[in-house]
Amino acid sequence: MSGEEVRERDVRTPRSATGVVITQLVAYAALLIVAALVSIWPSDPVLIVWTILVAVTGLGALLRWWPFDDTFRTSVVERMVSGLAGICAFVAAGIVVPHLVRDPGAATSRASITSWAVVFGILVTVLVIVGFITQMLRTVRSHLIRSLSHAVFGGIACVSAAGWCFLPVFIAIALTSGGGKHVAGVVIVMAVVLLILLSLGAAAASWGREGAEDGSHDYIGVALLPVMIGGIAMYMATLAMYFLIF
Question: The whole model's pTM is what?
């Protein structure tokens, strides 16, 4: 490796990692700010627009900057299947989120909040099955495990992104009146979610540095992947808060 190549590699690597971190911070800040505004005016139209906004920006950005370097044909199939599964997850979230934000303590809220977990499980199962089928239909099955993991992981990220739709629900539950148990629960759950998001961010930064070495990954897609997956952490936090408070 020549000196010029070494210098180019040293310059590209930190720049890619920095881009990953900045992209993640912007995405998280936008989600938090908009969700806080939605919580101030939790009408059905506003909540539906919130769900659509997260779906369009999250799914659209990840599918546009797909972070996996598969063949063109494989990539198109993966994006189509992942996008369709993600849309189904967002539709399910759009059905239950308005009811949960309006009255998180209602008797029917338990069934509503757990129903999305059922949808998530079904979609992930379908993604695994479809992933196996598409890989078996390939004429040349080189890098089979790698391609399968890309297909399933990308699909799970698109489905998990719908978990961010529950952020206004989390805020609504956190703002309900309660004693010391309530405050302690909010702090503990938020700390766990923050730890998960930081861990995912660190993994993405590492992947971004590796991708910068050979130019195989787009840093925007790499940055958005853990943000999307972080949606399931937000849903689990909302679920934990619900059962803790109510």
Answer: 0.85
